[in-house]
Design goal:
Strand order of the largest sheet: 8-9-10-5-11-12
CATH class of the largest domain: Mainly Alpha
Largest sheet: 6 strands, mixed
Radius of gyration: 34 Å
CATH topology of the largest domain: ABC transporter transmembrane region fold
CATH superfamily of the largest domain: ABC transporter type 1, transmembrane domain
Strand content: 5-15%
Number of helices: 23
Length: 660
């Protein structure tokens, strides 16, 4: 892990962004191409063959005009005709082989990049995902990676092809007539200056186009999933969302039109310059023909060579800028790959086997602001332009975040950062938390909204690391333990149950892919959901829909409980969100939870009085501090925070349930 986190870099001035290809960037891109070195060499061979074959037709034209026709040589005419057919055919066949090789290289690299991006994103901490739009992530995985593929398939191939073609064409032209060659090259300055200017402009437009596309994708992802669509319909905001989408789509449209026009005007200028060069060759060559120093066939051959020469010259004049432009996609991919991983295994980390379930929080303090300091936090892909840290191949810098107004909260109880004040004092979500859970004990977390209950449950499975203090399992600091081995010992049922758009079976097997049908059914029996599943037309193969929306809230929760049972964790974390369910569903879930918690160390955000009464210890949180601990009777007798909560919340809930 780098000494400096991904939130501590400074703003990069985009106005000073100039196209440059650094050695480190080239080496890094080459690293992804290295596994395909054999194919690359074969592709270079095909480029050389195609470039050589392209030089043959003008020589055939010259021989036809200067020799075959004047001498009325029918045999020569036949061979020239066969050659004019064979050369393009052979060229096309070699071109197919080249395309096959370049496609294999490009698709291989896009696979490697996508896998690396996907793997790296899943190593990022929860802090990253709470602050990054899903659409932006999708844009990096799709649009940017495809752009990187095009840099390999198109740009690099074109540069190499143009370089080889230019060298071979100049050799042939100089060997035929050096005076006309030099004359044609006099117009090169007309290519160089416009090409450089347009290349820089296109690079800026390309990056802007990618940014605009990412914003549009983010909006689509937010509003076209089930939760977003439901919210839009509930508040009747479809016209407003359509207007927002139209604005962003218009930005994509306008930048696309701008890019197309810049290219078209540029190529119009190139065509004009090429026409000037060709006319110059015809005029000069015509004078030489009239003086009997030149042949008509030579003029035709030279005019053809010049048309083949100006294209590569124009491309190579801007090759450096063009190549830098094509690497914008690689830069954007590397921006993500270079984000330091906040939560990861330290060298020599201990692997936990089967644990007893002894949990202890020692002087734990936590702030959603990194390190509890007033540092600039880059928590969104939209905020990074380029990144740089020791060993990075590219310049990196986050955009500045506007300072929040003083007095804003640093977090909500859902565990995600909201805002930070401009002062230097940390905004603690938790402060000096100390408690212990012995193996098999049930600890109930209670407290007003925003007290820090969810934050406590996020620290135990190490979704975040505490800024101060330690979280221990069986005496091991979680930061000294292999993350996957700790995760294997912990099961978590969150307040918002998430199911994949897949079958009930596959959603259950997500906890343990090797589970048998009998084990699935036993877990579902214990979660009081088997009978419901068995009555479905497709049974365990029923599709639950996006985020499980085809199931009711109680059904989704019971599936989630069955999934945790299938994992069979030693430590259970539970947000007991049953207040919005009917009495029957609540009873089924409560019975299932009692089975889940039996014999396990359980940390429960308690909403039911029965859970609180059954708890071995009640942890009362208030404003991020552990205000009280004890049993129900002990805490009531103190007349403190818990007693007030009992009177204002739990007693009322008990009365409401009795009235149902």
């Amino acid at each position: 892990m780098h000494d400096r986190g991904w939130w501590s870099y400074i703003r990069y001035d985009e106005e000073q962004d100039k196209p440059k290809v650094s050695r480190s960037l080239i080496l890094r891109v080459s690293g992804y191409a290295r596994p395909y070195l054999r194919r690359i060499l074969l592709m270079l061979a095909t480029i050389l063959i195609i470039s050589t074959l392209t030089l043959v037709p003008p020589l055939l034209y010259r021989d036809l005009i200067d020799t075959a026709l004047p001498q009325r040589d029918f045999a020569r005419l036949n061979w020239l005709a066969i050659g004019m057919i064979s050369i393009p055919l052979l060229n096309g066949l070699v071109g197919i082989i080249q395309r096959y090789l370049s496609a294999g290289i490009g698709e291989g690299i896009i696979y490697d990049l996508r896998r690396a991006l996907f793997e790296h994103m899943h190593r990022m901490s929860l802090r990253f995902f709470t602050s990054t739009k899903t659409g932006e992530l999708m844009s990096r995985l799709n649009n940017d990676v495809v752009g990187a593929q095009q840099a390999i398939n198109s740009t690099t191939v074109n540069i190499v092809s143009n370089a080889i073609s230019l060298v071979l064409t100049l050799i042939v032209m100089l060997s035929l007539e050096w005076r006309l060659t030099v004359l044609g090259l006099l117009i090169l300055p007309l290519f160089i200056l416009p090409a450089k200017h347009v290349g820089r402009t296109l690079r800026r437009v390309t990056r802007e186009q990618m940014d605009q596309g990412a914003r549009m994708n983010a909006l689509m992802n937010e509003t076209l999933n089930v939760s977003g669509a439901l919210l839009v319909k509930i508040f009747n905001r479809a016209p407003d969302e359509t207007a927002r989408f139209s604005e962003r789509a218009a930005g994509v449209r306008d930048i696309g039109i701008r890019q197309a026009l810049i290219g078209r005007w540029f190529f119009l200028g190139l065509s004009l310059v090429g026409a000037i060069g060709t006319a110059l060759v015809f005029w000069s060559g015509g004078l030489l023909v009239l003086r009997d120093e030149f042949t008509i066939g030579m003029i035709v051959a030279f005019s053809t060579y010049f048309s083949q020469l100006y294209g590569p010259i124009a491309a190579l004049t801007n090759a450096r800028v063009e190549f830098a432009t094509s690497l914008v996609s690689f830069e954007r991919v590397f921006e993500v790959l270079d984000l330091p991983v906040e939560i990861q295994d330290k060298p020599g980390a201990i692997r936990l086997e089967r644990v007893a379930g002894h949990v202890r929080f020692e002087n734990v303090s936590f702030s959603y602001r990194p390190n509890g300091r007033n540092e600039e936090q880059v928590s969104s892909l939209a905020e990074i332009i380029r990144w740089q840290h020791p060993g990075s191949a590219i310049d990196v810098a986050p955009a500045p975040r506007p300072a929040a107004a003083a007095g804003q909260s640093a977090s909500n109880d859902g565990g995600s950062p909201i805002a930070h004040s401009a002062d230097s004092a940390p905004r603690w979500a938790l402060r000096n938390i100390n408690f212990e859970m012995k193996p098999g004990q049930l600890a109930a977390l209670v407290g007003p909204s925003g007290a820090g209950k969810t934050t406590v449950t996020y620290l135990l499975p190490r979704l975040y690391d505490p800024n101060e203090g330690r979280v221990l399992i069986d005496g091991y600091d979680l930061r000294d333990v292999v993350l996957s081995s700790a995760s294997a010992q912990i099961g978590m049922v969150t307040q918002e149950t998430y199911l994949f758009h897949d079958t009930i079976r596959n959603n259950l097997l997500y906890a343990r892919p090797s589970a048998s049908q009998a084990e699935l059914e036993k877990a579902c029996h214990d979660a009081n959901i088997h009978e419901f599943i068995a009555d479905l037309p497709e049974g365990y193969d029923t599709i639950v829909g996006e985020r499980g929306y085809r199931l009711s809230g109680g059904e989704k929760q019971r599936v989630a409980i069955a999934r945790v049972l299938l994992k069979d964790p030693r430590i259970l974390i539970l947000d007991e969100a049953t207040s919005n369910l009917d009495s029957q569903s609540e009873a089924l879930i409560q019975a299932a939870l009692e089975r889940v918690m039996k014999g396990r160390t359980s940390l429960v955000i308690a909403h039911r009085l029965s859970t609180i009464l059954a708890a071995d210890v009640i942890l009362v949180l208030d404003n991020g501090r552990l205000a009280e601990t004890g049993t129900h009777e002990q805490l009531l007798a103190r007349g403190g925070v818990y007693a007030r909560l009992y009177e204002t919340q739990f007693r009322q809930r008990m009365v409401e349930r009795q009235e149902r």
